[in-house]
Write a structure and sequence with these properties.
The complex is a heterodimer of chains A (140) and B (512).
Chain A: H1 5-28, H2 36-54, H3 56-63, H4 67-83, E1 97-100, E2 109-112, H5 113-139
Antiparallel strand pairs in A: 1-2
Helix pairs in contact in A: 1-2, 2-3, 2-5, 4-5
Chain B: H1 2-21, H2 27-53, E1 56-60, E2 69-73, H3 75-98, H4 101-105, H5 108-124, H6 128-147, H7 152-183, H8 188-194, H9 201-219, H10 227-231, H11 237-261, H12 267-291, H13 295-316, H14 319-350, H15 361-364, H16 366-380, H17 386-400, H18 404-430, H19 446-468, H20 470-485, H21 488-495, H22 504-511
Antiparallel strand pairs in B: 1-2
Helix pairs in contact in B: 1-2, 1-5, 2-3, 2-5, 3-5, 3-11, 3-14, 3-19, 5-6, 5-11, 6-7, 6-11, 7-9, 8-21, 9-11, 11-13, 11-14, 12-13, 12-18, 13-14, 13-17, 13-18, 14-16, 14-17, 14-19, 14-20, 16-18, 16-19, 17-18, 17-19
The chains are: A mainly alpha (140), B mainly alpha (512).
Chain lengths: 140, 512
């Protein structure tokens, strides 16, 4: 933890920005560079910054859930996204798609289990990085 | 079909998630046991399918081979997954009494299940890069298990373990890169054909040796085994039992797979190296064991020595030798895990694993002595236990191949194995306890006693069954060896599948 007013003030803004940016990266990742892994890294950077500025206990309070549980829930979500294909008699990890508001010449809004899988990966990366960083922060 | 292949990976992962979320209560350990039982059942069904249908393969996400994630099970893969299920269930039950609540709260069961998932994944994958990923899953989980609890000697062993394994990983990854550069594919079945067409066969041999070293570190062969005796005696008994049974065997499996399916272009060179490695591994391992004076350390060195026998089978590369290697692999996992479990009980009731600090177990705990005797004599190769047949087949294969020196080495190493087993027997079981303690099984709580002894007795019974009725097991190993030596069925199962149905956006684009 660093006692710096500049860092403290900047962190408030940066954490929100980083978290928003991480979600943006997560969502654009299907067709463009980005995705769950990178999104998770960026998202965890926000909280790492928070931990440097405010200390580990404050970060744990801000997270509300234990980071290792977040990671495991993420693993569960990713697994569920893969297993979901069983209801459609497809192979494990086959992407399932739903096109909301699809018409003759418009695909509508595509929602897929691929995105769910990416969200799972996001949480796994996010949770694992924060588990490590907070453990190191508390050690010092 | 595809779910059958994926189940041994999905089940442990799902169990890990649940066990972690319930890690603070007693539910976690029961979830772990149920998950391990589920894995065993799933592997049994997979085995039945492979026995009936031959090699089965499936593409995850329906992206066709050689581009997609291929899972494939031939007899060797299937039997390894079954053995993983058996050992996993035995150790999960054993853990009821062995793992302290403190470790459970840190997520022991979740790590254990992730390890099982990694091991099953490595056995079932049909893609070299995925094999690397599964190795990483195993490495992360096993490192977590190794240092769980954070004692000084655990960290010491863990650092050595992870450092040497990372070296192996780097070599593995570089090898994958070079191989991909030469052939343009990483699907193992596809590689089988692609390596024949590589122009620069010399470079291919170099890459083969890189893989040999990478898997050699994982399998703990001479001279790359130092991490194993440095780390295996430090964690909880349940952890070292599952490590001893399964982890190095994944390396051996990978060696067998790659050097029967892909790197068979220059057998005279690569398999001769393996033969030397096998001989040195057997000898150094058993000599190391003879020099040790701790229950688990002796057993750790024995793992190294036994790995030599399996490599020997692969190195001779005759049908009978491969049969021996497969048989040895199966027999060894059961026996070795069991010996570590016995060592754990001995520590519980006699207070230590240091041979000079314990004793008197034969007099006061004769049942434990009996349960130790079965796997110990099986390991040493006493008839009629399973180890005898495994060694017999291998030595016979070596003599048939006119490799008399290595056959003699294998026999001498067998003798030395008996020597160090009698050392444990003499010190831990026959001589009186130096502290005057009378170690009794009845000093354990009845619940703990059941949880500790049921897995040991079951594994010992399995050893006896393989030993007394070796015929079906040898026949099975013969079929597995046939598949390994003639990979055409394997290749056809992976690549021969016709057009894979398109789904999702791809299908949509086609219909447009």
């Amino acid at each position: 933890m660093m006692n710096s007013i500049i860092l403290n003030a900047a962190t408030r803004l940066l954490v929100a920005l980083l978290l928003m940016f991480s979600v943006y990266m997560l969502l654009r990742g299907h067709n463009l560079p980005g995705g769950g892994f990178i999104g998770g890294l960026i998202g965890s950077t926000g909280f790492v910054l928070y931990a440097i500025a405010q200390g580990a206990p404050a970060t744990r309070r801000a997270l509300r859930a234990e980071p290792q549980s977040l990671a495991m829930v993420g693993l569960g979500i990713a697994l569920f996204a893969g297993v979901f294909a069983v209801f459609f008699d497809d192979a494990f990890f086959t992407g399932q798609w739903l096109f909301i508001g699809a018409t003759e010449d418009d695909k509508g809004l595509p929602i897929s289990t691929v995105l769910v899988f990416d969200i799972g990966v996001y949480l796994v990366v996010f949770g694992s990085i924060l588990t490590l960083v907070l453990a190191l922060e508390e050690e010092v | 079909m595809s779910w059958l292949l994926a189940a041994p990976i999905i089940i442990p992962f799902a169990t890990a998630v649940l066990a972690f979320l319930f890690r603070n209560g007693p539910e976690g350990r029961w979830i772990s046991i149920i998950g391990a039982a589920g894995l065993l059942i799933a592997s049994g069904i997979l085995m039945a399918e492979v026995l009936a249908e031959g090699v089965v393969a499936a593409q995850m996400g329906q992206w066709g081979a050689p581009f997609g994630i291929t899972l494939v099970a031939d007899l060797l893969s299937a039997v390894m997954v079954v053995i993983t299920g058996i050992t996993g269930l035995a150790v999960a039950i054993y853990a009821l009494a062995d793992i302290e609540e403190r470790l459970e709260k840190l997520g022991y069961h979740a790590l254990f299940q992730v390890l099982l998932a990694g091991v099953c994944g490595a056995f079932l994958t049909g893609d070299l890069f995925n094999l690397y990923v599964w190795f990483e899953v195993m490495l992360i989980a096993s490192f977590g298990l190794l240092v769980l609890g954070g004692r000084r000697d655990q960290l010491d062993g863990g650092i050595k373990y992870v450092t040497l394994n990372l070296v192996s990983t780097i070599l593995f990854l570089s090898g994958i890169g070079l191989l991909y550069g030469m052939t343009g594919t990483l699907n193992m079945a596809d590689l089988h054909g692609a390596v024949q067409e590589v122009e620069n066969q010399g470079l291919l041999v170099v890459v083969a040796v890189m893989f040999m070293i990478a898997f050699g570190v994982k399998a703990a062969v001479f001279p790359l085994f130092f991490w194993l005796p440095a780390s295996y005696h430090t964690p909880s008994v349940a952890v070292s039992a599952i490590f001893a049974g399964l982890l190095t065997k994944v390396g051996v499996y990978a060696l067998i797979r790659m050097f029967t399916l892909v790197f068979t272009t220059d057998i005279a060179f690569t398999h001769t190296i393996l033969l030397w490695v096998a001989g040195f591994t057997m000898v150094t391992g058993v000599l190391g064991a003879a020099a040790m004076n701790d229950f688990r350390r002796i057993l750790s060195f024995h793992i190294v020595s036994q790995i030599g026998y399996m490599i020997l089978g692969l190195a001779l590369y005759t049908p009978l030798a491969i049969v021996g290697a497969v048989f040895y692999l199966v027999h060894h996992i059961i026996v070795k895990a069991n010996l570590f479990l016995v060592a754990g009980v001995a520590r519980r009731i006699a207070g230590s694993t240091d041979l000079s600090a314990i004793g008197g177990l034969y007099k006061t705990a004769p049942w434990l002595a009996f349960l130790f005797l079965i796997p110990a004599f099986s390991l040493a190769g006493f008839p009629p236990l399973s180890g005898f047949w495994a060694k017999y087949v291998l030595v016979k294969a070596a003599i048939d191949a006119e490799a008399y020196v290595i056959a003699g080495t294998a026999l001498v190493v067998g003798l030395l194995t008996i020597y160090s087993m009698t050392k444990i027997w003499g010190a831990a079981f026959w001589k009186p306890h130096p502290g005057g303690l009378q170690p009794k099984l009845s000093s354990l709580a009845p619940r703990d006693r059941a949880a500790l002894l049921v897995p040991i007795a079951s594994l010992a019974a399995l050893t006896c069954i393989i030993g007394l009725f070796p015929e079906p097991f040898v026949q099975f190993a013969e079929r597995a060896a046939d598949q390994l030596l003639d990979p055409s069925a394997y290749v056809a199962a992976v690549l021969g599948a016709d057009e894979v149905g398109l789904t999702g956006l791809a299908a949509l684009e086609v219909t447009e």
